[in-house]
Amino acid sequence: MHRVVITGLGPVSSIGVGAENFCHAVRAGKSGISRISSFDVSGFEHQMAGEVTDFKAGDVLTQLDVAEWGRASLLAAAAARLAADDAGLDDVGEDTAVLMGTTSGEIPHVVAMTESWHLNGDRVPDAALAAQLPAGRLALAAAQELGATGETMTFSAACAAANCALGYAFDLVALGEAPVAVAGGADAVSRFTHAAFHRLGALAKDTCRPFDRERDGMLTAEGGAALVLESLDGARERGARIYAEVLGYALSCDAHHPSAPEVKSIARTMDSALRRSGVRPQEVDYICAHGTGTRLNDQVEAQAIHSVYGHAMPPLSSLKSMLGHTMGAASGFGSIACALAISRGFIPPTINHRHRDPDLHGIDPVAGAAREATVRVAQNNAFGFGGNNAIVVFGSAPCTS
């Protein structure tokens, strides 16, 4: 078994594009939430989301024809390109694997085609638009951009998808089946997703307040997140910078409810992830929480963490307070944040947190501002509809000598 390390980070987010910009924004507690501009929201009571407004795919991508790909695919490919460049991978290599997760794939195109059929009476779909629909194109876009001809796969595990992709990438590299793997996730803001969560009553009015006593829901968002994983030996051989080590992961399914999380299943997944990583609960310095900002999800997550860690719970925070819920990319951003927390020595904040909730077992949500800290071990939580749970554990970078 090879030890697996992270050598490249590629965030494309509403608070910053590229590792350094993203790191500065997270550390500063920047908000990426604004009024939705990508579709007409005049009929919606809730009109805020986390859109990537300053992203031009053509400024990042070098190999893809932007016109031939949907927005989610472009976000995935751009994240992969940024991660590869950050890792200093001039030659990606023919055995490099590309694994991407998504919740909705190219759902904006599905919406566009449906509206065209309904409003214009189109009998024959736009062939160019239809060609962009398959969710598998997200990983294909990233692979084609990088020239990576190893294993390529797109994971659809709702909001746990990027961690699923990361876990699979870890296995490939650890087992020697791929020297390098690029893994992450992507999703685009769409009327469909916004309307779905609106109908569920899950959207916040204008601000996402994870773990706050007054929290009232989540905000939809978009983005692409990718990380470069490679063997420790390979990274050392080429003199690569190492952000962190991937220690292990665990996946599970609640088999309980289509949308409501389940405490025991999540706690069991945490236990399994820590055990497989060779980490004791008291050794974890930070938890990047799923933290959606809904009443139920935050309550269940806090209860599960308490059941595993007892009263010695480490600090935790939710990036969704800054980014909104980026769906299939969410745990990819969480993994990037964990790598930065370990390598840069800080714990990301939960912004918008004003009132401690006495029902959340005394958690420390790192409210308002980032905290300077030595982070040796970090845990990244991801839970999705369908009972999908995926947790990844990271550790300090091994000595490079």
TrEMBL record:
SUPFAM superfamilies for this protein: Thiolase-like (SSF53901)
Coiled-coil residue spans: none
Domain annotation Ketosynthase family 3 (KS3): ranges: 1-396
Entry keyword annotation includes Transferase: yes
Keyword line: Acyltransferase, Transferase
Keyword tRNA processing recorded: no
Any one GO MF annotation of this record: 3-oxoacyl-[acyl-carrier-protein] synthase activity
InterPro entries: Beta-ketoacyl_synthase, Ketoacyl_synth_AS, Ketoacyl_synth_C, Ketoacyl_synth_N, PKS_Beta-ketoAc_synthase_dom, Thiolase-like
Protein's name in the database: Beta-ketoacyl-[acyl-carrier-protein] synthase family protein
Organism expressing this protein natively: Streptomyces alboniger
